[in-house]
Amino acid sequence: MKLKQAVLLVLLAFVPAIGQAIYFRDKVSWQTPVPASEMVTVAQAREWGDNATWIDARPAEEFAQDHVPGAMLLNEDHWNELLPQFLVLWSPEKKIVVYCSTQNCNASREIAHRLRNEAQLKNVFVLEGGWEAWLKAKR
Fold first, then answer.
1. What letter does residue 126 receive in the DSSP assignment?
2. Global confidence as pTM
């Protein structure tokens, strides 16, 4: 009897895991590689100076704690609210640098993808290493 209960509990534990795997199947970072031509290092982005617009794709709480000077918040959670605000200030001659927490964070890739495909913007780059790389380079 205990063996049946244990098997039933294991099977029930897999139900939410399977649901998450199905729901997040397109959001796994290793499934959305960024071509090298769409990546930028901190050093390269800094060389662009005022010709770069920085986009922080992290949650609002992290943005409020600290962010790249002059960066704008634009994340998945508030895309519909924040995109129009960004587009008002966007300048077509500037390059867009999107970052999130780390290299493995998928938020910057998602935001860059949406800016390219939904907003039809050009010159959108993902910051290699994300916020952590920025902090490391700042030291």
1. E
2. 0.74
Task: Tell me the two tokens of residue 137.
Answer: 């380079």
Residue 50 amino acid letter: D
When divided into structural domains, the chain yields a total of: 1
The answer to the question of residue 1 being in a domain is: no
Kindly report the CATH number assigned to the domain that includes residue 71.
3.40.250.10
Is 72 among the domain residues? yes
What is the span of the domain harbouring residue 122? 36-138
H/E run at residue 48? helix 42-48
Tokens of 49: 């100076």
User: What backbone phi and psi angles, to 5 degrees, belong to 40?
Assistant: -145, 145
**Cα 39 from Cα 31, distance rounded (Å):** 16
Q: How far apart are CA 84 and CA 90, in angstroms?
A: 10
CA atoms within 13 A on the CB side of 11: 6
pLDDT in tens, 90-125: 999 999 999 999 877 889 999 999 999 999 999 999
CA–CA distance, 57 with 72 (Å, rounded to integer): 9
The pairing of strands 124-127 and 39-40 is parallel
